[in-house]
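Exercise 7b. C-alpha cells:
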C-alpha cells in the first residue's frame, strides 16, 4: 500500500524522497559546484518563461534581437536548428546561455513534441513557441506575462502590427490600438459572420500558430494534442487549442494588443514569401512542403473526428 503514491510514475521501486518528477533547462557547470549560484533568477522573481524557436542561420540577426528581449529578463531561450548550423551562432555573446538542439529540416512542432515534454518544462510558468520572423521592437515579455496573469489568460499571442506586417491571414490577430487585450473579432462577411453570438474559432477562442504563448497548464494539454510522428507541420492545431484553455476558450484565449509584434513573413520550411527573389528550386521545394502541410491538415481533421466518434466518454465542452 505504501507504493500507491507513485505507481503511475513507474517509480514504485524507489524511496519517495529520491524521486524527481520534473526537470528544467538551466545549464549546469562541469566543475565548481559554487557556480550553481549563477543560475539566473527572474528579475521580478514571480514567473519563469521559456522561449523556444525553430531557427536558421539566415535569420540570426532577427533572432538575436528576439532572444535578447527574453534573456534580459532572465528567461530561458531554446533554439531548434532546422538547418544544422549551430557553430554560426557562436559569435553571439549570449549563445552559450541558450539551449541548442539540431535536427535537419524539422518544424517547431516536431521539436516541441520531442524536447518540450510537460515534465521537462514544468518549472516554467509560460511557454513561448514562436517563429523566427517576428519583429519585437514594441514587445516586452515581462509586461506580456503580467497581462496574461491579470487577464486570466491561458493561451495567447501578441497582436500583429497591421502597418508593418507583411503576412496577416486572420483579422482576429490584427492589433486593436484601443484595447489592451481582445478575445474576439467582428466580421459581417458571409464567409466569416463573426458576432457576439460566435462561440469558437476563428471568431473567438483562437490564436494563430506563428506566435502562441501557453501557460503551464495549457501546455500540458497542448503537448498531447501535437501529433507525434506524421503530422509535423501542425496545421489544424490552432482550431483545437481552445480545448486546452482550462475553461471557456472565449475567455481564456486572447490576443494581447498592448505588446505587439511585426510578422515579417520570411520563408521558413515552405512558408509564404516574396517568390520573385527565390531560385526555382526553392520555389519547387516550398510548393511541395505547403502541399504536404495541406494534406496533413485534412488528416488531422479526420483524426480528430475519428477520436470523437470512438470516445464514448468524451463530451465536447463547446458543443452548442
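Sequence design result:
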Amino acid at each position: 500500500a505504501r507504493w500507491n503514491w507513485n505507481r503511475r510514475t513507474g517509480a514504485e521501486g524507489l524511496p519517495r524522497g529520491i524521486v524527481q518528477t520534473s526537470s528544467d533547462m538551466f545549464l549546469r557547470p562541469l566543475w565548481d559546484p559554487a557556480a550553481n549560484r549563477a543560475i539566473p533568477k527572474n528579475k521580478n522573481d514571480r514567473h519563469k518563461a521559456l522561449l523556444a524557436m525553430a531557427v536558421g542561420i539566415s535569420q540570426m540577426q532577427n533572432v538575436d534581437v528576439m532572444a535578447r528581449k527574453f534573456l534580459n529578463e532572465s528567461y530561458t531561450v531554446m533554439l531548434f536548428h532546422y538547418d544544422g548550423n549551430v557553430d554560426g551562432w557562436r559569435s553571439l555573446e549570449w549563445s552559450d546561455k541558450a539551449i541548442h538542439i539540431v535536427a535537419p529540416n524539422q518544424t517547431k512542432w516536431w521539436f516541441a513534441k520531442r524536447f518540450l515534454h510537460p515534465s521537462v518544462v514544468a518549472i516554467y510558468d509560460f511557454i513561448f513557441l514562436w517563429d523566427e520572423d517576428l519583429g519585437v521592437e514594441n514587445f516586452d515579455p515581462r509586461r506580456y506575462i503580467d497581462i496574461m496573469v491579470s487577464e486570466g489568460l491561458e493561451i495567447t499571442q501578441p497582436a500583429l502590427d497591421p502597418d508593418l506586417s507583411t503576412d496577416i491571414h486572420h483579422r482576429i490577430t490584427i492589433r486593436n490600438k484601443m484595447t489592451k487585450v481582445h478575445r474576439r473579432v467582428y466580421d459581417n462577411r458571409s464567409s466569416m459572420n463573426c458576432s457576439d453570438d460566435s462561440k469558437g474559432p476563428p471568431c473567438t477562442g483562437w490564436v494563430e500558430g506563428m506566435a502562441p504563448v501557453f501557460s503551464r497548464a495549457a501546455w500540458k494539454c497542448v503537448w498531447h494534442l501535437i501529433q507525434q510522428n506524421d503530422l509535423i507541420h501542425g496545421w489544424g492545431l490552432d482550431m483545437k487549442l481552445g480545448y486546452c484553455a482550462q475553461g471557456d476558450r472565449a475567455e481564456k484565449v486572447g490576443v494581447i494588443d498592448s505588446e505587439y509584434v511585426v510578422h515579417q513573413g520570411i520563408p521558413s520550411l515552405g512558408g509564404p514569401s516574396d517568390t520573385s527573389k527565390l531560385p526555382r528550386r526553392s520555389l519547387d521545394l516550398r510548393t511541395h512542403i505547403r502541399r504536404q502541410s495541406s494534406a496533413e491538415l485534412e488528416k488531422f481533421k479526420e483524426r480528430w473526428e475519428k477520436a470523437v466518434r470512438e470516445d464514448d466518454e468524451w463530451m465536447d465542452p463547446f458543443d452548442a
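Instructor comment: Strands lie at 49-55, 76-81, 99-102, 126-130, 134-135, 155-160, 181-182, 213-215, 253-263. Helices lie at 60-71, 108-115, 141-151, 216-225, 249-252, 280-310.
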